[in-house]
């Protein structure tokens, strides 16, 4: 008995000692301070080779973490357990993060490459004067469809999705704003509509789409479209261009009634510990050569004007992914509608998912 | 003094564990469920739960969980029975358990390939002359894949119950003139009922709150309480409503355990 007791005490003591040691070591090097930079980005949204290049050039060790939704990212930053130095949220989330005072202002004199960004993408309503954010990529939401499976169909309008011939052939993405926004647009309303009657009308219209909907999926729609599992999918432009490389039969269109225009942006959250390093990182990513390399890997649309000239022509001149300003003016950026509206959108989306034809 | 004191010391890790990882989370869930989306104290979430949307959700979750449990039992009982009759029981059992070591998501993605329009399952249907049809994103594929995932958890307790059955009882039944089916009904099944109950509990409860499979295999055509909880925590940030649904799930769990455990004491 006594032996056991001694062993028990010894183990407890050793554990405590180890905990203290780990704490000391963590504080002394790595995980915080000037030597490391914690980057928080969407999954598969950077050419990882560029991260190594940044590490070599600056001697800073990058800790790279990923998220799969703006909301998940927000939750983690709010909790503040990790010292994220860079995050890449979408525009409506930046508004929300500003409301909650979660961002640090940028020091523009440390961002000498900022002038490479196209004027069109600077000084946008969600962050006037780019005090807190620098554009990373941008894109649209549209219809990705298979020309070979649907030889005599053309897509110009959202209403084309309601075609009875497309029975059980459409994939939707699992996002309330995207799907309800699409229905609102097809009815001629804004995708930031907060009128409850309009939203109910959108739900009614969506319910008539049910027979055509094969599935409501996440990132899997890329895999499914590449394998000809479905003929049509609601898609983000970047995902669309990615699968179009794999499956030549696919084409992408932004419907004429309008759609969503979005921007992902680099910001420095309040959790940052290496603010200087974070500026270095942003400035590094703004270099035209680096931005071009990144664009070739990620295949979303770059806001970096100088890097566009370094891209292969068929990429930079593709109207589907670099639509003319006339088209983008018709598109809308998601506004932060507030918690109550977001909750209503999701409740309606849930009702739509449960609707059986 | 030593003995009693030591026993208390041994209890410490267990008590700490239960307190930190069982009681505290349940209390937290309960606590959050009383706050609306703006963080004000209210019962609105409980009112919302009794609206048609969530009631329908609960009913449909129940229906699918019931189907999954029932089909698992139908397959698992004969399998477990056969296993006890084989020569290398442990080996066969191991083969059934091995798939549960593979990551759930990996298995789900594999099934996307198998059930796809040009997948192995459709090739087979084509070959035997039925012709290919849509398998992925149907109720069938959803129930099939979940049964596949849960079946080891149903087989194990039933196997253990069958395996520890005293063979002398079967001989006695035989000697006393009971037919095979009577022996099964009156001797084997009642004596393995505990295993069946455990199996049903282990399958039914997680089946109620599945969420990843509903999207990957059923393409969100099947919606369960788990889907709603995930959405409230990750998308709407309405932790109150998410917690309220979780509270009801916990209550349902207690109810099921109480119901399936109750008869044992009666018998």
From TrEMBL, chain A:
Keywords: Periplasm, Signal, Transport. InterPro entries: SBP, Sperm_putr-bd. Gene3D superfamilies: Periplasmic binding protein-like II (3.40.190.10). Spermidine binds at residue 92. The lineage of its organism: Bacteria, Bacillati, Bacillota, Bacilli, Bacillales. It comes from Gracilibacillus halotolerans. One of its GO terms (molecular function) is polyamine binding. Transmembrane segments: none annotated. One of its GO terms (cellular component) is periplasmic space. It comes from the Bacteria. This is Spermidine/putrescine transport system substrate-binding protein. It is found in: Periplasm. GO terms for biological process: polyamine transport.
UniProtKB/TrEMBL annotation, chain B:
It comes from the Bacteria. One of its GO terms (cellular component) is plasma membrane. Keywords: Cell membrane, Membrane, Transmembrane, Transmembrane helix, Transport. SUPFAM superfamilies: MetI-like. Residues 58-260 form the ABC transmembrane type-1 domain. One of its GO terms (biological process) is transmembrane transport. It is a multi-pass membrane protein. It is found in: Cell membrane. The keyword Cell membrane applies. The chain crosses the membrane at residues 12-34, 62-84, 91-120, 140-159, 202-219, 239-262. Pfam families: BPD_transp_1. PANTHER family: INNER MEMBRANE ABC TRANSPORTER PERMEASE PROTEIN YDCU-RELATED (PTHR42929:SF1), INNER MEMBRANE ABC TRANSPORTER PERMEASE PROTEIN YDCU-RELATED-RELATED (PTHR42929). Belongs to the binding-protein-dependent transport system permease family. CysTW subfamily. This is Spermidine/putrescine transport system permease protein. It comes from Gracilibacillus halotolerans.
């Amino acid at each position: 008995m006594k032996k056991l007791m001694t062993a028990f005490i010894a183990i407890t003591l050793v554990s405590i000692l180890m905990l203290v040691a780990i704490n000391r070591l963590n504080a002394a090097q790595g995980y915080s301070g000037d030597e490391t930079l914690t980057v928080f980005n969407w999954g598969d949204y950077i050419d990882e080779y560029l991260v190594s290049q940044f590490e070599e050039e600056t001697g800073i060790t990058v800790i790279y973490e990923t998220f799969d939704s703006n909301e998940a990212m927000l939750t983690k930053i709010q909790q503040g357990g990790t010292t994220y130095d860079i995050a890449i949220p979408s525009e409506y989330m930046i508004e929300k993060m500003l409301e909650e005072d979660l961002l640090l202002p940028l020091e523009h004199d440390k961002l000498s490459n900022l002038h490479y960004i196209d004027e069109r993408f600077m000084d946008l309503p969600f962050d006037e004067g780019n005090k807190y954010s620098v554009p990373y990529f941008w894109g649209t939401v549209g219809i990705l469809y298979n020309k070979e499976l649907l030889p005599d169909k053309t897509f110009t309008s959202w209403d084309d999705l309601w075609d009875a011939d497309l029975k059980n052939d459409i994939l939707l993405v699992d996002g309330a704003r995207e799907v309800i926004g699409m229905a609102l647009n097809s009815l001629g309303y804004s995708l930031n509509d907060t009128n409850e009657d309009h939203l109910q009308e959108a739900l009614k219209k969506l319910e008539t789409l049910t027979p055509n909907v094969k599935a409501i999926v996440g990132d899997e729609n890329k895999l499914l479209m590449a394998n000809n599992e479905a003929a049509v999918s609601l898609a983000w432009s970047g995902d669309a261009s990615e699968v179009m490389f794999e499956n030549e039969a696919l084409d992408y269109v932004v419907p004429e009634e309008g759609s969503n225009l979005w921007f992902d942006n680099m910001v420095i959250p309040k959790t940052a510990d290496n603010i200087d390093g974070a500026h270095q990182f942003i400035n590094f990513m703004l270099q035209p050569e680096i931005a071009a390399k990144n664009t070739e890997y990620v295949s979303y649309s770059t806001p970096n004007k100088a890097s566009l000239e370094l891209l292969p022509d068929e990429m930079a001149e593709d109207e589907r992914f670099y639509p003319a300003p006339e088209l983008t003016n018709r598109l809308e950026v998601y506004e932060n509608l507030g918690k109550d509206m977001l909750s209503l959108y999701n409740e309606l989306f849930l009702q739509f998912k449960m609707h059986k034809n | 003094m030593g003995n009693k004191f030591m026993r208390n010391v041994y209890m410490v890790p267990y008590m700490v564990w239960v307190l930190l990882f069982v009681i505290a989370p349940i209390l937290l869930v309960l606590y959050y469920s009383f706050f609306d989306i703006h963080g004000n104290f209210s019962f609105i979430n409980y009112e919302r739960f009794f609206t048609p949307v969530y009631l329908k959700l609960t009913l449909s979750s129940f229906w699918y969980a019931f189907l999954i449990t029932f089909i698992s039992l139908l397959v698992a009982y004969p399998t477990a029975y056969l296993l006890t009759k084989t020569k290398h029981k442990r080996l066969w059992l191991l083969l059934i358990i091995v798939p549960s070591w593979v990551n759930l998501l990996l298995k789900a993605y594999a099934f996307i390939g198998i059930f796809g329009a040009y997948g192995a399952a459709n090739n087979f249907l084509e070959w035997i002359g039925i012709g290919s049809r849509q398998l992925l994103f149907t109720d069938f594929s959803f129930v099939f894949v979940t049964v596949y995932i849960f079946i080891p958890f149903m087989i194990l307790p039933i196997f253990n119950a069958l395996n520890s059955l005293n063979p002398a009882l079967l001989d006695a039944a035989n000697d006393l003139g009971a037919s095979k089916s009577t022996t099964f009904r009156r001797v084997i099944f009642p004596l393995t009922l505990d295993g069946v109950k455990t199996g049903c509990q282990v399958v039914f409860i997680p089946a109620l709150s599945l969420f990843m499979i509903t999207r990957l295999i059923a393409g969100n055509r099947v919606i369960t309480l788990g889907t709603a909880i995930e959405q409230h925590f990750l998308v709407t940030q309405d932790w109150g409503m998410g917690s309220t649904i979780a509270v009801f799930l916990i209550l349902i769990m207690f109810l099921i355990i109480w119901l399936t455990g109750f008869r044992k004491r009666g018998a």
